[in-house]
Amino acid sequence: MPRPCPTPWPLASLALPLLSSTALAQSVPQPAPAASAVQQVEVQAARPEDLEARRRSTASKIVVGRDEIERYGDSTLGELLKRLPGVTLDGRSGRGGNIRMRGMGGGYTQILLDGEAVRGGLSLDQLDPDQVERIEIIRAPTAETGARAIAGTINVITREGYRKRLNDLKLGLGTEAGRWGGNVSWSRDDRIDEDLTYSASVSLWNARRYDAGSTETSATGEQWLEDSQSDGRRRGVWSNARLQWKLPGGDQLMLMPSAMVAGNDSLRQSQLQVLRDDNGDAPRYATSLTDSDFTHRMLRLNGQWRQNLASGGRIEWRGGVGLNTSQSLSQRQEFKADGQLRRTLDERSDSRERSQHLNAKFSQLLEGDHQLVAGLELEGAQRNEERQTLQDGVPQLKTLGTELSARSLRTAAYVQDEFNLNPNWALSGGLRWEGITTRGQDIGGGDPENRSSVWTPLLHAVWKPDPKGRDQLRISITRSYKAPQLGQLMALPNLSNRYPVPGPNTPTSPDRAGNPNLQPELASGIDIALERYLPAGGLLSANLFHRRISGLMRTLTTLETVPWSDQPRWVARPANVGDAWTTGLELEARGSLRTWWPDAPAVDLRANASLFRSQVDGVPGPDNRLDQQPGATLNAGADWRIAGTPLTVGASVNWTPGYATRLDERQWVSQNRKQSVDAYLLWQIAPWARLRLSAANLAAEDALNRSTSFGETSLSRNETYLSLRSQLELKL
């Protein structure tokens, strides 16, 4: 199958005007800095404004600002988020993965980008951290942010509007497993006139990647081992802008366009050893070669109009449209032991998702210090997916067609009142209604339609024993839900590439398909948190949570009679399987070492630990937990400003223990522990320049994953690698 030209890098020419303008800016003579004291670097446990926003919020919220985002020079947002309390990634170290709060992913964690839902398969790992102004982690749903947040909400705020003139350039270079990569990012904030300001940023990246691993599969009378090596490349360009007009009467109009093209390609080689084959069912090839390419494109235009009212209130209108497309191409060739070609498998998948939203929010400060907020929301999405599989040039799904579609329509209305009951108590009460209609296509030509709605009462309270003190207790009682993603409603199968049709396959190499009859999950929850705020940006916090879930969605593998094969095939597809619960404790501590030891060096400390427990009703124990929820997580780190030098150094440790998950009576998955040790050095060369050196995954170890399904076991081992990066940051 011909591979497309990598799309993003022709766009690299966009960077040329940027670099030329940088050169011109540097050619202008600048006043020489005074030969004064060594440049000092200011690093605090947390910026005062970030902690103050957290303390004043009635709902439990963690605010992560630019200082913490930049600290380790992470190349992906996922590597940054893994250090935050209760946040985990399901991928191996250095490879990102799906972002989870409280060990719950797959839709339990609501991901927002500038307050809007992330759609179309866009991953936060495709977002350059340099594009991010701050991150808000909201542990319990609120009427305003939405109820699709059983585990919580992560709201990523990209560069905000004009505050002061800014013209920053960052140049990065890194290496991993002997492969090199680089990135360039540029940000500019400026004013055109008194009423019009703008912000713009562009990021480009291109990095080579190497991966190696093995998979051992065993069943009754059978055992084989496959070793694989892969060389690939990760590439992309992301740009966004914000235009902000001041209108008469204090009104404000904003336009926020953004665009992204990102992808990866790889060439994977594998060698198969059949160790035992009593039944004659082992794979019949000796080596394989897989050439693959994936590209994701995103276009988004959002607008906002803030209108001040004569009553002192405000109406905020927000609307936007988005388009996400992705294309995946792969060709797998299998060879016999004598080198002859055994078969060729070509796969192509194209998806296109369009989205639209329109929101209206009214806010008014009432008597008694009541802050009233009410709003209406309307959101629609349409997804088309086309998939084609050819074996030796012959279509494998010709009897089913190659294209299916799904659509959803969500409407919501909410009201929320936040007020101080007395100097000791602050309350926030809200009521939200959401209705969602989903329609998918099954492979029989039907269009199953599901309608559901949920009322979500929400109550948040903060109690301060001493109104002027630093201690406070939070309580949140909430109701939330999780809706199926459009991709889960698509019934078009993705065939096992190891076992082609029309023959049989195995439980550990199933076909994969969606379920157009999926229903949403509902959850009731409670959060209780105790916080103590320390001097110099310090904090001690303990948070206890519990969720009761009904209508749990889970992907199960079953043997089915399918229309795409004349023999029964093992198929993995999502289904509603029953009820579940989860509970946990989250601990956090941060502060300056001098808080406890006045004569200590200027060292800031931070640590967080979480304990999780869960159970799926109807699945026998042990290990009948929610999918991929670990039993615990631990993070610890320190930053040291070396006195009398322009240097700051820091390190962090991230650890997640191994665990097993029982899916049903005959299906298990497990993975080993995951640990990551990162370090950085920051050198403030001049007021306008600094150099950041960082090392990630210093204690690299292999990732092990085991799955057992109906008596067949698969054990995968994948290597992880030390990553080194350097980044020059210039303020022009």
Automatic annotation (TrEMBL):
Topology in membrane: Multi-pass membrane protein
Keywords assigned: Cell outer membrane, Membrane, Receptor, Signal, TonB box, Transmembrane, Transmembrane beta strand, Transport
Keyword Acetylation: no
Keyword Repeat attached: no
Gene Ontology biological-process entries: siderophore transmembrane transport
Domain TonB-dependent receptor-like beta-barrel, first and last residues per copy: 277-698
Annotated spans, Disordered: 494-514
Signal peptide positions (record): 1-25
MF annotations from Gene Ontology: siderophore uptake transmembrane transporter activity
Organism from which the protein derives: Ideonella alba
Protein name: TonB-dependent receptor
Annotated family: Belongs to the TonB-dependent receptor family.
Domain TonB-dependent receptor plug: 55-153
Gene3D superfamilies referenced in this protein's UniProt entry, alphabetically: TonB-dependent receptor, beta-barrel domain (2.40.170.20), TonB-dependent receptor, plug domain (2.170.130.10)
GO CC entries: cell outer membrane
Subcellular location: Cell outer membrane
